Amino acid sequence: MAVTSEQTPAKADPDSKQEEERRLHQRMEQIGRKLVVLSGKGGVGKSTVAPNLAAALAADHFKVGLLDVDIHGPSIPRLMGLEGTTLGTDGTSLLPVPVGENLAVMSIGFLLAKRTDAVIWRGPLKFGVIRQFLSDVAWGQLDFLVIDCPPGTGDEPLSVAQLVGQAALAVIVTTPQELAVSDVRRCITFCQQVGLPVAGIVENMSGFVCPQCGVSLNLFGRGGGEGLAREMGVPFLGCIPIDPGIVCGGDCGKPFATGASGPAKGAFSEVVRRIEESASEAAAGRRAGHCDSKGTACGHDQEPTHHCSCR
After folding, report:
1. pTM of the model
2. Would you place residue 311 in the very low, low, confident or very high pLDDT band (cuts 50, 70, 90)?
3. In a domain, 143, yes or no
4. 301 found inside a domain
5. 109 is in which domain, residue-wise?
6. pLDDT in tens, 117-127
7. Domain contains 298
8. Which terminus of the chain, N or C, has less C-beta within 10 A?
């Protein structure tokens, strides 16, 4: 079955749009930091990084939401072991699916009757459902909202950047080889143009340690993400090696970041630590009256010299 535009609700009237704007602002005010997980290239492991980042932050006793805005290919329900879950409601809002004490998840995958259903929507419809996920879901008070976007710089990442408001940071995922790095370079440019500050770059699939002999093999090369970070003047968050445990965790719906120890878990813990530090520094900068973005401090009361998340 395909979910098409004919199955979507009619456009809201102006009064309801104003109410939706109010709800959106109110929801976003309750969230400390929004971490927008992006990649310019498909297949780099972005949708592996996002749920594991959310699970690791929750394990560190933060209140965390995980939002899947990959409308056409929602994989978060499978990666979190939530396939077949149905959403609840409190009468006025959708209730995200709880995972343990500190994590709640929302995905369009929860709204599809079968896992074979395809969503065939154009841009305006995708913008509308992303807005609803942000404004009509009862996220409550969160320390972090981790948002998993599809690859590229199209409708979904742009919609998120326009809707989440202040206190947002991009976490950009690449693999080491130049083919991926060249597309991720454009993703950083996208962030700069829409005023979305970059927390840093994660280099995924960075080396493989043979479990038999211990020799490290750079199957996709090494250092591409770190080199790009230097080139573009953004932080480098770390490397995550290829690890069979990541595959097993994804297929089983159990994030590797909270599982048994291993090379990938250790490396990912360091990535999470750096993201937490970046989020804390950005929050301190905003309280001091400085812009999150790379550039001139705007002071909130002056006209910014570039696209600025303080506005």
Report:
1. 0.86
2. very low
3. yes
4. no
5. 31-287
6. 989 988 899 99
7. no
8. N
